[in-house]
Design goal:
The structure holds two protein chains of two kinds. By secondary structure, chain A is mostly beta strands. Helices cover 0% and strands 52% of the residues of chain A. The chains are: A mainly beta, B mainly beta.
């Protein structure tokens, strides 16, 4: 059973377009992280969201944590080829030390 | 800077061999994790540890074991390597427990091929 479902699984867009990636669960999380992974490398943290309804911005990336802390979204404005990569959400499974990842969204931005 | 170091970037082993993947972190983190990453399946948790000598099964522990004799080192052992264990293996570490601000730091991964 996948506890963190991401959508879409794949996304190929033109430079300058906007996009949104979703991370959904039926579980409540105390916090949730977003990572980006480049080919042949380990994931690198982008942001942590903690409070329900919280919005965090990282340049052209906007992250939101759902009010009920069960879901999150990542919005990229005016995507650039450098945004290409695998985007992963992750969280500790409630009440445990088990750190789980979403299914991932593979983004390709074409110049 | 946090550093998580995996002993090998690429490894080729024969079916039936016992394989050791080593991971060392330098930030005195309590938690350590082993994942494998396969196309279309994402990162799947094999084993994790929240303290020295403590280990917990993740979602896919079959065919693997782990060892954590020292806080900074977490080893993944493939008891008898099989071709379906060909994968990218990622080690990670994080601060204690499930703190609200916890994040995981990853090594660069070991691409293991079993022939």
């Amino acid at each position: 059973t996948q506890l963190l479902e991401q959508s879409p699984q794949f996304l190929s867009i033109q430079e300058g377009e906007n996009l949104t990636v979703y991370c959904n669960s039926s579980s409540v999380f105390s916090s949730l992280q977003w990572y980006r992974q480049e080919p042949g490398e380990g994931p690198v943290l982008l942001v942590t969201v903690v409070t329900g309804g919280e919005v965090k911005k990282l340049k052209r990336l906007t992250f939101q944590f759902g009010d009920a802390r069960k879901d999150s979204s990542l919005h990229i404005t005016a995507a650039q080829p450098g945004d290409t990569g695998l985007y992963l959400c992750a969280a500790f499974y409630s009440g445990t030390y088990k750190y789980i990842f979403g299914t991932g969204t593979r983004l390709k931005v074409l110049a | 800077d946090v550093k998580v170091t995996q002993s090998s970037r690429y490894l080729v082993k024969r079916t039936g061999e016992k394989v050791f993947l080593e991971c060392v972190q330098d930030m005195d983190h309590e938690n350590m994790f082993w994942y494998r990453q396969d196309p279309g399946l994402g990162l799947r948790l094999i084993y994790f540890s929240y303290d020295v000598k403590m280990k917990e099964k993740g979602d896919i522990p079959e065919g693997y074991s782990v060892s954590r004799e020292k806080k900074e080192r977490f080893s993944l052992i493939l008891e008898s390597a099989s071709t379906n264990q060909t994968s990218m293996y990622l080690c990670a570490s994080s601060k204690e427990g499930y703190r609200r601000d916890t994040e995981a730091f990853f090594g660069q991964g070991t691409r293991l091929t079993v022939v």
